[in-house]
Automatic annotation (TrEMBL):
Chain ranges of the CP-type G domain: 111-266
Origin species: Sulfitobacter brevis
Keyword entries, A-Z: Cytoplasm, GTP-binding, Hydrolase, Metal-binding, Nucleotide-binding, Ribosome biogenesis, RNA-binding, rRNA-binding, Zinc
Identification of the protein by name: Small ribosomal subunit biogenesis GTPase RsgA
Job of this protein: One of several proteins that assist in the late maturation steps of the functional core of the 30S ribosomal subunit. Helps release RbfA from mature subunits. May play a role in the assembly of ribosomal proteins into the subunit. Circularly permuted GTPase that catalyzes slow GTP hydrolysis, GTPase activity is stimulated by the 30S ribosomal subunit.
Length: 358
Protein backbone atom coordinates (compact mmCIF):
# COMPACT_ATOMS: atom_id res chain seq x y z
CA UNK A 1 0.00 0.00 0.00
CA UNK A 2 1.51 3.32 -1.06
CA UNK A 3 0.46 6.50 0.63
CA UNK A 4 1.29 10.00 -0.47
CA UNK A 5 2.87 11.85 2.43
CA UNK A 6 4.27 14.71 0.38
CA UNK A 7 1.73 17.15 1.81
CA UNK A 8 3.23 16.66 5.27
CA UNK A 9 6.71 17.59 4.19
CA UNK A 10 7.94 21.10 4.99
CA UNK A 11 7.39 23.75 2.33
CA UNK A 12 4.82 21.63 0.56
CA UNK A 13 2.46 23.61 -1.60
CA UNK A 14 2.31 27.37 -2.01
CA UNK A 15 3.05 29.99 0.62
CA UNK A 16 -0.58 30.78 1.25
CA UNK A 17 -2.02 27.72 2.95
CA UNK A 18 -5.39 26.97 1.41
CA UNK A 19 -8.12 26.08 3.87
CA UNK A 20 -8.27 22.32 3.83
CA UNK A 21 -9.51 19.73 6.18
CA UNK A 22 -6.92 18.60 8.67
CA UNK A 23 -5.55 15.18 8.00
CA UNK A 24 -5.77 12.43 10.52
CA UNK A 25 -2.02 12.72 11.11
CA UNK A 26 -2.23 16.43 11.83
CA UNK A 27 -5.04 15.85 14.31
CA UNK A 28 -2.85 13.23 15.96
CA UNK A 29 -0.21 15.96 16.35
CA UNK A 30 2.02 15.48 13.30
CA UNK A 31 4.17 18.55 12.63
CA UNK A 32 6.87 19.65 10.17
CA UNK A 33 9.42 19.01 12.96
CA UNK A 34 8.71 15.29 12.55
CA UNK A 35 8.38 15.16 8.77
CA UNK A 36 11.79 16.82 8.49
CA UNK A 37 13.25 13.67 9.99
CA UNK A 38 12.15 11.39 7.18
CA UNK A 39 12.11 11.26 3.41
CA UNK A 40 8.97 10.68 1.35
CA UNK A 41 10.26 7.17 0.70
CA UNK A 42 10.73 6.55 4.45
CA UNK A 43 7.23 7.80 5.13
CA UNK A 44 5.73 5.57 2.46
CA UNK A 45 7.62 2.45 3.54
CA UNK A 46 7.35 3.08 7.28
CA UNK A 47 4.30 5.25 7.92
CA UNK A 48 4.31 7.53 10.96
CA UNK A 49 2.21 6.47 13.90
CA UNK A 50 1.76 8.07 17.31
CA UNK A 51 1.92 6.14 20.56
CA UNK A 52 -1.46 6.86 22.13
CA UNK A 53 -1.22 4.31 24.88
CA UNK A 54 1.47 2.36 26.66
CA UNK A 55 0.72 -1.07 28.11
CA UNK A 56 3.16 -3.28 29.88
CA UNK A 57 3.41 -5.63 26.92
CA UNK A 58 2.42 -3.49 23.97
CA UNK A 59 2.15 -0.02 22.49
CA UNK A 60 -1.10 1.20 21.01
CA UNK A 61 -0.30 3.34 17.97
CA UNK A 62 -2.40 5.32 15.52
CA UNK A 63 -1.70 6.84 12.15
CA UNK A 64 -3.31 7.57 8.81
CA UNK A 65 -5.69 4.61 8.48
CA UNK A 66 -3.72 2.73 11.10
CA UNK A 67 -4.83 1.69 14.57
CA UNK A 68 -2.84 -1.19 15.97
CA UNK A 69 -0.78 -2.54 18.80
CA UNK A 70 2.89 -3.38 18.45
CA UNK A 71 5.42 -4.98 20.76
CA UNK A 72 7.17 -2.53 23.06
CA UNK A 73 10.50 -2.95 21.27
CA UNK A 74 11.14 0.70 20.49
CA UNK A 75 12.12 2.74 23.53
CA UNK A 76 9.00 4.81 23.20
CA UNK A 77 6.59 6.48 25.55
CA UNK A 78 3.13 7.94 25.23
CA UNK A 79 3.11 10.81 22.74
CA UNK A 80 6.05 9.52 20.74
CA UNK A 81 6.03 9.35 16.94
CA UNK A 82 7.35 6.19 15.36
CA UNK A 83 8.07 5.23 11.79
CA UNK A 84 6.08 2.03 11.87
CA UNK A 85 7.95 -0.83 10.30
CA UNK A 86 5.25 -3.31 9.22
CA UNK A 87 7.80 -6.09 8.63
CA UNK A 88 9.49 -5.64 11.95
CA UNK A 89 7.26 -3.58 14.27
CA UNK A 90 9.57 -3.76 17.27
CA UNK A 91 12.28 -2.14 15.15
CA UNK A 92 10.12 0.89 14.36
CA UNK A 93 12.20 4.03 14.61
CA UNK A 94 11.37 6.59 17.31
CA UNK A 95 11.47 10.11 15.89
CA UNK A 96 13.29 12.87 17.70
CA UNK A 97 11.00 14.55 20.25
CA UNK A 98 9.97 18.17 20.56
CA UNK A 99 9.80 17.67 24.32
CA UNK A 100 9.96 14.98 26.94
CA UNK A 101 9.06 14.48 30.57
CA UNK A 102 11.27 12.16 32.53
CA UNK A 103 11.51 11.08 36.09
CA UNK A 104 14.12 9.48 38.21
CA UNK A 105 13.72 5.74 38.38
CA UNK A 106 14.75 4.78 41.89
CA UNK A 107 16.89 1.71 42.39
CA UNK A 108 17.55 0.95 38.75
CA UNK A 109 20.61 1.20 36.62
CA UNK A 110 18.70 3.33 34.17
CA UNK A 111 18.56 6.59 35.99
CA UNK A 112 15.61 8.17 34.28
CA UNK A 113 12.29 6.92 33.04
CA UNK A 114 10.39 8.49 30.19
CA UNK A 115 6.96 9.71 31.20
CA UNK A 116 5.65 11.44 28.09
CA UNK A 117 6.88 12.90 24.82
CA UNK A 118 5.88 15.65 22.43
CA UNK A 119 3.69 17.61 24.83
CA UNK A 120 3.14 21.19 23.63
CA UNK A 121 1.66 22.87 26.69
CA UNK A 122 1.62 21.94 30.34
CA UNK A 123 -0.92 23.60 32.59
CA UNK A 124 0.46 24.11 36.06
CA UNK A 125 -2.57 24.17 38.30
CA UNK A 126 -2.83 25.72 41.74
CA UNK A 127 -5.89 26.75 43.67
CA UNK A 128 -6.33 30.22 45.10
CA UNK A 129 -6.16 29.23 48.73
CA UNK A 130 -3.69 27.96 51.28
CA UNK A 131 -2.44 25.41 48.76
CA UNK A 132 -0.98 28.31 46.75
CA UNK A 133 2.80 28.34 47.00
CA UNK A 134 5.05 30.35 44.67
CA UNK A 135 8.08 28.16 45.30
CA UNK A 136 6.16 25.06 44.26
CA UNK A 137 4.81 26.77 41.14
CA UNK A 138 8.34 27.79 40.32
CA UNK A 139 9.51 24.18 40.57
CA UNK A 140 6.85 23.08 38.14
CA UNK A 141 7.77 25.90 35.78
CA UNK A 142 11.44 24.87 35.93
CA UNK A 143 10.37 21.32 35.22
CA UNK A 144 8.38 22.43 32.17
CA UNK A 145 11.31 24.45 30.85
CA UNK A 146 13.56 21.46 31.35
CA UNK A 147 11.11 19.30 29.40
CA UNK A 148 10.96 22.03 26.73
CA UNK A 149 7.22 22.34 27.14
CA UNK A 150 5.44 25.69 27.34
CA UNK A 151 4.08 26.20 30.85
CA UNK A 152 0.86 28.10 31.58
CA UNK A 153 -0.15 28.74 35.18
CA UNK A 154 -3.81 28.22 36.01
CA UNK A 155 -5.13 29.55 39.31
CA UNK A 156 -8.37 27.77 40.15
CA UNK A 157 -11.22 28.30 42.63
CA UNK A 158 -11.46 32.09 42.28
CA UNK A 159 -15.08 31.72 43.38
CA UNK A 160 -13.83 30.62 46.80
CA UNK A 161 -11.24 33.38 47.12
CA UNK A 162 -12.06 36.85 48.44
CA UNK A 163 -9.23 38.55 46.54
CA UNK A 164 -7.29 36.67 43.84
CA UNK A 165 -5.20 39.75 42.91
CA UNK A 166 -2.27 39.25 45.34
CA UNK A 167 -1.95 35.59 44.26
CA UNK A 168 -1.94 36.61 40.62
CA UNK A 169 0.73 39.23 41.32
CA UNK A 170 2.90 36.65 43.04
CA UNK A 171 2.47 34.11 40.23
CA UNK A 172 3.37 36.81 37.73
CA UNK A 173 6.74 37.36 39.41
CA UNK A 174 7.87 33.84 38.43
CA UNK A 175 8.72 34.58 34.84
CA UNK A 176 7.63 37.02 32.19
CA UNK A 177 7.65 34.04 29.82
CA UNK A 178 4.81 32.34 31.65
CA UNK A 179 1.18 33.34 31.33
CA UNK A 180 -1.04 33.29 34.40
CA UNK A 181 -4.78 32.66 34.04
CA UNK A 182 -7.44 32.73 36.73
CA UNK A 183 -10.02 30.09 35.96
CA UNK A 184 -13.10 28.70 37.62
CA UNK A 185 -12.81 25.03 36.72
CA UNK A 186 -16.42 24.38 37.66
CA UNK A 187 -17.86 26.99 35.31
CA UNK A 188 -17.94 27.16 31.53
CA UNK A 189 -14.62 29.03 31.57
CA UNK A 190 -12.26 26.11 30.84
CA UNK A 191 -13.45 25.62 27.25
CA UNK A 192 -13.03 29.27 26.32
CA UNK A 193 -9.99 30.15 28.44
CA UNK A 194 -7.98 27.07 27.47
CA UNK A 195 -8.99 27.22 23.80
CA UNK A 196 -5.80 28.99 22.63
CA UNK A 197 -3.73 25.97 23.72
CA UNK A 198 -6.22 23.22 22.94
CA UNK A 199 -6.33 23.52 19.19
CA UNK A 200 -6.44 20.43 16.95
CA UNK A 201 -3.06 18.75 16.76
CA UNK A 202 -1.92 20.17 20.10
CA UNK A 203 -0.92 17.99 23.03
CA UNK A 204 -1.52 19.22 26.56
CA UNK A 205 -0.87 17.97 30.08
CA UNK A 206 -1.71 19.04 33.62
CA UNK A 207 0.55 19.23 36.65
CA UNK A 208 -0.32 20.21 40.19
CA UNK A 209 -1.08 19.00 43.69
CA UNK A 210 -4.01 16.83 44.54
CA UNK A 211 -7.36 18.58 44.76
CA UNK A 212 -6.47 21.71 42.79
CA UNK A 213 -8.92 20.94 39.98
CA UNK A 214 -6.98 19.05 37.30
CA UNK A 215 -9.65 16.40 36.74
CA UNK A 216 -12.36 19.05 36.76
CA UNK A 217 -10.54 20.96 34.02
CA UNK A 218 -9.98 17.83 31.95
CA UNK A 219 -13.63 16.84 32.30
CA UNK A 220 -14.67 20.31 31.14
CA UNK A 221 -12.61 19.85 27.97
CA UNK A 222 -14.35 16.53 27.34
CA UNK A 223 -17.80 17.93 27.88
CA UNK A 224 -18.81 16.55 24.51
CA UNK A 225 -17.26 13.22 25.32
CA UNK A 226 -14.06 11.56 24.32
CA UNK A 227 -13.59 11.58 20.57
CA UNK A 228 -14.18 8.34 18.71
CA UNK A 229 -10.59 8.37 17.48
CA UNK A 230 -9.47 7.83 21.03
CA UNK A 231 -11.20 4.59 21.72
CA UNK A 232 -8.10 3.83 23.66
CA UNK A 233 -9.66 2.07 26.57
CA UNK A 234 -9.45 -1.56 27.42
CA UNK A 235 -12.08 -3.67 29.00
CA UNK A 236 -11.07 -5.60 32.03
CA UNK A 237 -12.23 -9.12 32.81
CA UNK A 238 -15.52 -7.85 34.22
CA UNK A 239 -16.23 -5.90 31.07
CA UNK A 240 -15.61 -2.56 32.75
CA UNK A 241 -13.61 0.12 31.07
CA UNK A 242 -10.36 0.64 32.87
CA UNK A 243 -8.08 3.56 32.45
CA UNK A 244 -4.70 2.23 31.54
CA UNK A 245 -1.54 3.72 32.80
CA UNK A 246 -0.42 6.07 30.08
CA UNK A 247 -2.55 7.37 27.34
CA UNK A 248 -3.65 10.27 25.20
CA UNK A 249 -7.32 11.16 25.00
CA UNK A 250 -8.48 13.24 22.06
CA UNK A 251 -11.16 15.88 22.43
CA UNK A 252 -13.76 16.08 19.67
CA UNK A 253 -11.81 19.13 18.46
CA UNK A 254 -8.69 17.00 18.08
CA UNK A 255 -6.59 18.14 21.03
CA UNK A 256 -4.64 15.37 22.74
CA UNK A 257 -4.83 15.37 26.51
CA UNK A 258 -2.23 13.41 28.38
CA UNK A 259 -3.58 11.17 31.07
CA UNK A 260 -0.88 9.52 33.08
CA UNK A 261 -0.44 9.16 36.81
CA UNK A 262 3.28 9.22 36.12
CA UNK A 263 3.05 12.96 35.71
CA UNK A 264 2.21 13.21 39.38
CA UNK A 265 5.42 11.42 40.22
CA UNK A 266 7.55 13.70 38.14
CA UNK A 267 10.07 15.13 40.53
CA UNK A 268 12.30 18.07 40.37
CA UNK A 269 15.18 16.14 38.93
CA UNK A 270 17.93 17.26 36.68
CA UNK A 271 16.21 20.55 36.18
CA UNK A 272 19.40 22.53 35.95
CA UNK A 273 18.56 23.75 32.48
CA UNK A 274 15.06 24.64 33.59
CA UNK A 275 16.37 26.61 36.54
CA UNK A 276 18.86 28.36 34.33
CA UNK A 277 16.01 29.43 32.04
CA UNK A 278 13.77 30.55 34.84
CA UNK A 279 16.47 32.53 36.63
CA UNK A 280 18.48 33.43 33.53
CA UNK A 281 19.21 36.93 34.82
CA UNK A 282 20.57 35.69 38.17
CA UNK A 283 22.56 32.89 36.54
CA UNK A 284 24.15 35.44 34.23
CA UNK A 285 25.01 37.71 37.15
CA UNK A 286 26.49 34.77 39.07
CA UNK A 287 28.80 34.20 36.12
CA UNK A 288 30.17 37.70 36.63
CA UNK A 289 31.11 37.21 40.30
CA UNK A 290 34.82 37.50 41.06
CA UNK A 291 35.00 33.99 42.52
CA UNK A 292 33.84 30.90 40.68
CA UNK A 293 32.46 29.36 43.85
CA UNK A 294 30.85 32.58 45.05
CA UNK A 295 28.01 31.87 47.47
CA UNK A 296 26.67 35.40 46.85
CA UNK A 297 26.71 36.17 50.53
CA UNK A 298 29.66 38.19 51.77
CA UNK A 299 32.22 37.59 49.04
CA UNK A 300 33.88 40.65 47.52
CA UNK A 301 33.10 41.33 43.88
CA UNK A 302 29.75 39.53 44.01
CA UNK A 303 27.70 40.65 41.01
CA UNK A 304 24.53 39.10 42.44
CA UNK A 305 24.67 41.10 45.71
CA UNK A 306 25.50 44.21 43.71
CA UNK A 307 22.40 43.77 41.56
CA UNK A 308 20.37 43.15 44.69
CA UNK A 309 21.68 46.37 46.22
CA UNK A 310 20.78 48.26 43.05
CA UNK A 311 17.27 46.84 43.34
CA UNK A 312 17.54 45.00 40.02
CA UNK A 313 16.62 41.64 41.51
CA UNK A 314 14.25 40.78 44.29
CA UNK A 315 15.57 39.26 47.51
CA UNK A 316 12.72 36.72 47.71
CA UNK A 317 13.42 35.56 44.17
CA UNK A 318 17.13 35.24 44.90
CA UNK A 319 16.27 33.13 47.93
CA UNK A 320 14.08 30.87 45.82
CA UNK A 321 16.83 30.47 43.25
CA UNK A 322 19.29 29.52 46.00
CA UNK A 323 16.88 26.96 47.40
CA UNK A 324 16.06 25.44 44.02
CA UNK A 325 19.71 25.31 42.98
CA UNK A 326 20.71 23.74 46.29
CA UNK A 327 17.95 21.17 45.99
CA UNK A 328 19.02 20.34 42.47
CA UNK A 329 22.58 19.82 43.67
CA UNK A 330 21.32 17.62 46.50
CA UNK A 331 19.17 15.53 44.15
CA UNK A 332 22.11 14.93 41.88
CA UNK A 333 24.47 13.88 44.65
CA UNK A 334 21.88 11.68 46.32
CA UNK A 335 21.25 10.04 42.97
CA UNK A 336 24.91 9.17 42.46
CA UNK A 337 25.07 7.94 46.03
CA UNK A 338 21.94 5.90 45.46
CA UNK A 339 23.42 4.47 42.28
CA UNK A 340 26.58 3.29 44.02
CA UNK A 341 24.45 1.89 46.85
CA UNK A 342 22.43 -0.03 44.28
CA UNK A 343 25.60 -1.40 42.80
CA UNK A 344 26.94 -2.60 46.12
CA UNK A 345 23.61 -4.21 46.92
CA UNK A 346 23.78 -5.91 43.56
CA UNK A 347 27.28 -7.14 44.38
CA UNK A 348 26.12 -8.46 47.74
CA UNK A 349 23.26 -10.34 46.14
CA UNK A 350 25.61 -11.80 43.52
CA UNK A 351 28.16 -12.92 46.06
CA UNK A 352 25.44 -14.45 48.25
CA UNK A 353 24.09 -16.32 45.24
CA UNK A 354 27.57 -17.52 44.34
CA UNK A 355 28.22 -18.65 47.88
CA UNK A 356 24.91 -20.54 47.90
CA UNK A 357 25.79 -22.26 44.67
CA UNK A 358 29.02 -23.61 46.11
N1 LIG B 1 -15.53 26.10 43.73
C1 LIG B 1 -14.64 25.52 42.92
N2 LIG B 1 -14.35 24.22 43.11
C2 LIG B 1 -13.45 23.63 42.31
C3 LIG B 1 -12.79 24.34 41.27
N3 LIG B 1 -11.93 23.49 40.66
C4 LIG B 1 -12.05 22.30 41.28
N4 LIG B 1 -12.97 22.37 42.28
C5 LIG B 1 -13.37 21.29 43.18
O1 LIG B 1 -12.21 20.84 43.90
C6 LIG B 1 -12.28 19.43 44.12
C7 LIG B 1 -11.04 18.75 43.60
O2 LIG B 1 -10.97 18.88 42.19
P1 LIG B 1 -10.29 17.79 41.24
O3 LIG B 1 -10.53 18.23 39.85
O4 LIG B 1 -10.73 16.44 41.61
O5 LIG B 1 -8.77 17.97 41.64
P2 LIG B 1 -7.50 17.19 41.04
O6 LIG B 1 -6.45 18.21 40.87
O7 LIG B 1 -7.88 16.42 39.83
O8 LIG B 1 -7.13 16.21 42.21
P3 LIG B 1 -6.37 14.77 42.10
O9 LIG B 1 -7.21 13.90 41.22
O10 LIG B 1 -6.35 14.29 43.54
O11 LIG B 1 -5.00 15.04 41.57
C8 LIG B 1 -13.55 18.95 43.45
O12 LIG B 1 -14.55 18.85 44.43
C9 LIG B 1 -13.87 20.06 42.46
O13 LIG B 1 -15.25 20.15 42.21
C10 LIG B 1 -13.11 25.74 41.10
O14 LIG B 1 -12.58 26.46 40.24
N5 LIG B 1 -14.05 26.27 41.95
ZN1 LIG C 1 28.31 36.19 43.91
Amino acid sequence: MTRDYSQFLPNAGTGKAPERARSRLEILGWKPFFSQQASIEDLAATPPVRVVEVHRTKLHVMGEGLDLTIPPGPDATVGDWLLYDPLNPSESKVLERTSKFERRAPGHDRTTQLIAANVDTVFIVSSLNREFNVARLERYVALAFEAEVTPVILLTKPDLCADPAPFVDQANTISNRVLVEVINAKSDEPLTKLAPWCKPGQTIAFLGSSGVGKSTLVNALFQEGVAATAAVREEDSRGRHTTTRRQLHFTTEGCAVLDTPGMREVQLTDVEAGIAGLFADIVELAGQCRFNDCAHETEPGCAVRAALDRGEIELARLARWRKLAAEEKFNNTSLSRRKSADKSLHKTINSVQQRNRK
